[in-house]
Amino acid sequence: MNSPFANVFLALQAYIQANVPAIKYIDQDLGQLKSGTRPPVSWPCVLIDFEDFCFENMSSNVQTASGVVVLRLGFAPHSNSSQATPTPYLQQAISYYDLEWALHKAIQGWAPGADYGHLVRISATTQKRSDSYRVRELRYSLAFEDYSTKPVQDFVTPNLAIMEHILP
């Protein structure tokens, strides 16, 4: 893949799958969790997106890029978590906190390749929903340099012949 975003997506997908095996489905965020019907995912899931990337020119068409990698962590409907809920059910109802924590510990400070900076958490929020699905949104900053449009400079090796010349 040539796109930095495609490479980061693939690296994240493989890394999460290897380091947080409790997550059953990892994909691009195409709005799967926004529908009013049952989302077409397996639970728990992580959907990945890239937002608010800004680019600044350095020189020779080289740019720095910085923005936000968004991980939407989705959970199936769960039981009640009130103080009256029996402990085993309560623990199951709030277990998503532990999974979120495991995902964060795996991702925080990790670099998706030699050409990228390290992911740094900048926020974690809960999406307010009218259905019973639980969605946590984790946002990580990421920066990299883009050399893809830097002009290629061809250097020509001169053809030199050195001849011996003796001065009179």
Question: Could you characterize the architecture of this molecule?
Answer:
The protein has 168 residues and is α+β, with helices and mostly antiparallel strands. It has a single domain (4-146), classed as Phage tail protein-like (STM4215-like). The chain is built from three helices and five strands. It has helices at residues 4-19, 87-93, 95-107; strands spanning 25-28, 45-57, 63-75, 120-126, 134-146. Strands 1-2-3-5-4 form a five-stranded mixed sheet, with helices on one face. Strand 2 and strand 3 (63-75) form a beta hairpin. The chain is elongated, with a radius of gyration of 25 Å.
Summarize the structure.
This protein has about 170 residues and is of the alpha+beta class.
Give the overall silhouette: elongated
| Count of runs of 4 or more consecutive helical residues | 3
Number of domains: 1
Q: Can you list the strand order of the major beta sheet? A: 1-2-3-5-4
Briefly note the CATH topology name: STM4215-like
CATH homology superfamily name: Phage tail protein-like
Uncertain residue ranges: none
